[in-house]
TrEMBL record:
Keyword Acyltransferase among record annotations: no
Compartment(s): Cell membrane
Protein family membership: Belongs to the MgtC/SapB family.
Name of protein: MgtC/SapB family protein
UniProt keywords, alphabetically: Cell membrane, Membrane, Transmembrane, Transmembrane helix
Any one annotated GO CC term: plasma membrane
Membrane topology, as annotated: Multi-pass membrane protein
Domain of life from the UniProt record: Bacteria
Domain ACT: start-end pairs: 140-218
Length: 233
């Protein structure tokens, strides 16, 4: 049980360090609980082994842990528009349950190797993946514009001149202006150079027909009738 606590904590500390929903204590509890259930399955029913009408199956409780842990993992998955977050954390909770079962069953070698590989996947491979996909970064930009001809073309031109590729565009009526002709635009952009992205935002924020402009980690806003040519990080 102590070993399960250590292995679960080693995985959980990486999730905690990255500010994910299921962190240090959650992973410890999942791993420790799984190990305890496995110990119960192996040793808890030893008094009934010799009973003629009783069939002891140590894998039965383990199977319930594997299927039941999915409910906990689902709580770590969040959806925001077309972006889904938390899948890796949910997977780490599930694999920590498997580590706990291995420890509880006495399969310490498998539990140790699995913990080592999980840490490599979450830390080293995560950094390698970010480095590999650094030129495929996707950024969302939300605009509210006056629905006049030519506005969308000006915005697309501002992105195109800076080498920014538009991956997706969603258009909705602006909820804040139901009685007027305003449109909400949500761009999904593929970025290669953050500095050129800021230049494009500054140019778009100066357009007369653009009412507001927001991004996930940047904000360039202006109220109706007022101009703003700056983008704050």
């Amino acid at each position: 049980m102590v070993l399960a606590t250590v292995f679960g904590g080693m995985v959980g500390i990486e999730r905690e360090w990255s500010n994910h929903a299921a962190g240090f204590r959650t992973h410890i509890l999942v791993c420790l609980g799984s190990a305890t259930i496995m110990l119960l399955s192996v040793y808890g029913f030893s008094d009934f082994v010799d009973e003629p009408q009783v069939r002891v199956d140590p894998a039965r409780l383990a199977a319930q842990v594997i299927s039941g842990i999915g409910f906990l993992g689902a709580g770590a998955i969040l959806r925001n528009g077309n972006m889904i977050k938390g899948l890796t954390t949910a997977a780490s909770v599930w694999v920590v349950a498997a580590i706990g079962l291995c420890v509880g069953a006495g399969f310490y070698t498998g539990a140790g190797i699995c913990t080592f590989l999980v840490l490599i996947s979450l830390y080293l491979l995560n950094r390698w993946e970010k480095h590999l996909l650094r030129h495929r970064r996707v950024q969302e930009v939300e605009l509210v514009i006056k629905d006049d001809p030519g506005v969308l073309a000006e915005i697309a031109s501002a992105f195109g001149e800076q080498g920014i590729q538009i991956a997706n565009l969603r258009m909705n009526p602006a909820e804040d202006h139901p009685a007027e002709r305003y449109m909400q635009l949500i761009f999904s952009l593929k970025l290669q150079n953050p500095e050129r992205f800021i230049v494009a935002l500054e140019r778009i924020s100066l357009l007369e027909k653009v009412i507001s402009l927001e991004t996930g980690n940047m904000d360039a806003g202006k109220s109706r009738g007022a101009k703003s040519g700056s983008v704050s990080m």
